[in-house]
Recover the amino acids of this structure.
């Protein structure tokens, strides 16, 4: 499904600006952020992107994972381990393609990891385990902002263990 998408603004005091996108519209699913001027105030309205996790680009994972975080004592790096029990991607991966990675998408953009593995029980896929490595404090802070948004959207809680 390739299409042309035209975004434009109309303002009484300036010319019309147009931007065209030609490509697969599915590539934009869940990642598109638009700034559209409000007609009365001429201030931009920003449409927020719902934080989602995907294994196949454009297909949101419906199962909420268990997430375990570890961080070095000096705070310079950390690891997030995700476990998805019976993820919905198993239902659609045959028609839509292969799992290509873990994609965490929100209004700031996308975080990704290719450290993803499927676990099988009696020859059938039962869970997906993924690992996201943060190599510095900036990456840790960005991941935590995503997780705060994702947790809020999916009613997740936080439990600190020793």
């Amino acid at each position: 499904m390739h299409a042309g998408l035209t975004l434009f603004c109309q303002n009484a005091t300036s010319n019309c600006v147009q931007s065209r996108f030609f490509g697969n519209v599915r590539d934009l699913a869940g990642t598109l952020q638009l700034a559209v001027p409000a007609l009365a105030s001429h201030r931009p309205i920003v449409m927020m992107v719902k934080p989602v996790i995907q294994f196949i680009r454009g297909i949101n994972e419906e199962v909420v994972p268990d997430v375990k975080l570890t961080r070095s004592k000096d705070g310079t790096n950390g690891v997030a381990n995700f476990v998805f029990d019976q993820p919905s991607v198993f239902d659609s991966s045959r028609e839509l393609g292969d799992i290509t990675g873990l994609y965490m998408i929100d209004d700031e953009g996308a975080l990704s990891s290719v450290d993803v593995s499927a676990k099988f029980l009696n020859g059938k896929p039962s869970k997906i385990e993924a690992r996201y490595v943060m190599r510095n404090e900036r990456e840790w802070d960005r991941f935590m902002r995503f997780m705060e948004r994702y947790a809020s959207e999916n009613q997740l809680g936080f439990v600190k263990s020793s």
